[in-house]
Amino acid sequence: MAKNDAGLPALLALVAALILTALWLSGADPLADAATQPLVVYCAHDAVYSEDVLREFERQTGVRLEIRFDTEATKSLGLVQMIARERNQPRCDVFWNNELLGTLDLQQKGLLLPYRGDGWKRMPEQYRDGDGHWVGFGARMRVWIVNVEQMAGDAESVQSALELETSRVAMAQPMFGTTLTHYAVLAEAWGLPKLQDWHRELRRRGLREVPGNGLVKDLVVAGTCDCGWTDTDDAFLALDAGASVSMLPIEVDGRTIAIPNTVAIIRGTKRVADAQRLVDFLTSRETELRLARSAARQIPLGDIGDERLSEDVERLRVRASDTVDLRPLLAARNAVLEWLRTETAP
Amino acid sequence: MAADGDGAVNATAALAWLAIRDLAIKLENSLRAPNFAVALEWSALRALLIALIAFPMCFAVARWLQRDDGPRRRWRWIAVVGPFLFPELLVGYTYAPWVAGRPLQAELACVALMLLRVVPVGVVALSLTPPSAVTPSALYCRRLSLRTWRDGVEWLRLWLAGPLTSAVPALALVWLVSFQQFELAALVRAVSWSDWLFVQQVGGLSLEASLRAALWPAVGQLAVLALAMLAVTKTAGDAQAATVIPLTRRQRALAAAYLVVAWTVVVGWPAASLAAGLPAGFQQLVRQPLRLQGLARELFAGLAAAMLAALIAWALSRRVSQEAAGLHPRGGLQTDDHSPGKVARWRSRWRFLLCLPGLSGSLVLGLALVALFQSPLLRVLYNTPLPWLVGLVLYLLPRSVLLRAWDNVSGPPAAEWLAEQLAASPDAAQQRHGRRLRWRLVEEPRFLAVAVLTYWGYLDLTTAYLLAPTGLTSGVVRLYNFMHFGRTAALSAEAAVLLVGPVVLAALVWPLLRRGRA
User: Fold this and answer.
1) What pTM, to 2 d.p., does this model score?
2) What is the set of domains in chain B, with CATH numbers?
3) Domains assigned to chain A
4) Gene3D superfamilies of this UniProt entry (chain A) (predicted)?
5) Residue pLDDT, tens place only, A173-196
6) Nearest residue to A140 via CA among A305, A335, A333, A291
7) Smallest Cα distance from B256 to chain A, Å
């Protein structure tokens, strides 16, 4: 690629630039006016489940969507940070979060636009913001996943596993995802100092902290660990695959932890009407049923009329009726995050 | 008495065991929650350990490669670089369930996997670094005549200037690549400065604090990079004609053992895990035309961005590497001024600092660019491919500088000049031979360098995740998302398309390039 041979690299660069530009223009259509540009959705929910739902919205409404998914390791928190960073030039129109507390953080920062649509109206108060800054739908529950070939899948057995040797107990890093919510619930119930002592003690006794809930499930399925904390969607994956596991809802002060998906419109969007349509679609009865009937078996939170659910989901739905109210937990979540971050500060 | 003696021995052994166990627990706990200083020191130390263990393997494999100059050599090269080019994402996901959450095991696995992955890097470095003027026989002869301590010092000086200096580039490069590891360490949950920064920023560490923290590793890497380049130029100055040194039996065994273990552990097992779901995955995929279309978009978007960035980084690196190292371009842009003035030299040395952003890791680089393109002046460009491209160029620049440094010193310039003359001959047959020679000597290694840079850029998750505009998604980001579900059939098929796709494309394009040029 000498000076006299610069032609081919330049040609290759040109071809690459053209392909990149063409793909970008065809995907995002930045030259079109705001009304015809695709609606940008940041989605923290797993692509395997959420993409079908979002494509169905496209099919029904003709509104084009541009979806940005999160990566497993930063599940939800990565996109929350991204939206906060983009506050000066928001790209995202609608945020589908797979939990609530990150959405509350964005609400507190003034980054969400209120909307009280049909979906908002059908949700119980516990799963929506009073002003409509966010609406919850389709929840997952925190559960123990237990390898029944290694131990009994009952509350006493998992409790004794926690109290004795914890090197065969797994959990995801508490700085991320639903485990962070779980820790926020514990911090609220026990107080942060007790949670810190408990956490350090579990670590001292060899608790296996892994990057995500999916890996917790894999470890328990493989028999490397006897039990672990995960979410219902991961536990169902293992059960569907025929693994010898059972799941047991985790209780804090006698109440389960059901973590809803949340959807919110980002302040600064130029596509308010389409964003509202998507919020209504996601929080509709049809979407909740669709999520409940997916492999993830998410728990419908709103009224579903006479529709029948599978036994699994029906059972979870009963348990979710007495669940911790997550709305007041933003301060606890921030305190937990701050503690976990500063524990390893420079 | 004997019983007392046995009891004392048992008690001592029990105490020693308890002390060791206590130490292991303390070490394990410090690895569970390291602060930045610990993470940084540990990463540097681990990288050094890996470099030192890897070196004899690199040496053995490089000699094994050197033995064969026939057509089989290409296959040998493929066998060597395969473990490095196999995506660490898949390697990490394969082994994470076994070791994640067990700090000591995770560290051991991290060292082993990194070691197997980085040996090819050292092999490439050793193969491209010109042999030192101080031959092993010269050193041996000098050692035979050691009489006074001055002789000893002289021998040491020769050893430092000879074998050690020519080993420095390979050691430095292996250290750099090991030190920069991110995904593998993060997946098996081993301690690393890059993962520490990632976790902290996700937890809310400010950009300023992240940048401050990243400055130290970046400066350290820059120093090692400069050292490697100095060593390359030093050996280039002293280089003797390449001689083929016979491969000893032990080296042959080491090279063979490395290749078998590396291919089994780094390529075979992860690929087999993935391949299990491949038939079902492809069946599912062909039934989803929309998904296939999306996959093609992601593949081409990632490849186009990476290739464009690689070509720009390669062009930029010409100035940065050659002038910073005090070299003159070979084959590239020829300058009339072969002895640049002091000011020009300083300016070109400052250009070397352009490598600093890329050496701070793709995460910090990406975050800094997000902040930059969110500023009022550049905000309008934020949602365009430009930030992604800038990020990739800066990320690839230090790697490109290093590849360029070797390109400057490898290969005999005289032969290259003769090939140029031949290509310019009025005789058609001579022209053809000249072009073929030029392709082999000059162009093929450079296109290969750009291809490797492209693949590097294509596999970088963080820049794509943070900087790609809406409308452009790199397949790697999606792959990361899908990994959550373990090795499902859909994931297997998509991963195969996204990871093998670029290799297949390169295999299709390469003969066309060669035909066009040679």
Assistant:
1) 0.78
2) 26-275 (1.10.3720), 276-331+340-518 (1.10.3720.10)
3) 32-139+259-313 (3.40.190.10), 140-257+331-342 (3.40.190.10)
4) Periplasmic binding protein-like II (3.40.190.10)
5) 898 889 999 999 999 999 999 999
6) A291
7) 33
